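ok trying this again, last paste got cut off
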Amino acid sequence: MENPCQPYARTVRDGGRFVRARPTRTRELIGYLVACPNPETLHIVCYPDPILSVKCAPIETFDASLAAVAEKMLCLMRDASGVGLAAPQVGLAIRLFVCNWTGEPEGDLVCVNPRFLELDGVGEMIEGCLSIPEVEVTMRRATTATLAAADIHGQPFECSGEGLAARVWQHEADHLDGRLITDTMSATDEIANRRALKQLESDYATNSKKVGRR
């Protein structure tokens, strides 16, 4: 199957214009609010794209553009059979993630500027990531969580969850701080995932060259 992930080309505001520029260093992107002129152009980006290691900026403006981005992210998540998707996974360095671990339409949740009020318990489970296909890592996380965030209209809310819900929230929140499941792999997981990671690195290098020639 063709890899759905594509390399990310940074889009930033420059005097009211949108300028496409490939990031050369991860740190260059920290703190940037990366603007997207057309949410329909969003796609899932893959490891080792630098955007995945960025600490994302808080969202201050709640408007139709943000709502459109969130809706597109939910579509991408569902199309990829995922349970969560964070903004940096679609090339946007903003503190936003969407999730739905229930499989039901009413289970869609959009979290803007999320933060944890409480984390409790500990449990291990194998996790994957839409931006790191074919890679699975055993992750230790809190088993219950209370999350505070804003909805797409800027209204604050809190929710509590356990099990898969708590794990999904923590996984997506990690993305907003530039943390990936590959950052804490055990020696066993490193060996098991070595080939898949090397293939992703090779694919990224190849696709980056193609983008550079356009």
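PB: full thing came through this time. Residues 117 and 146 are 5 Å apart (CA to CA).
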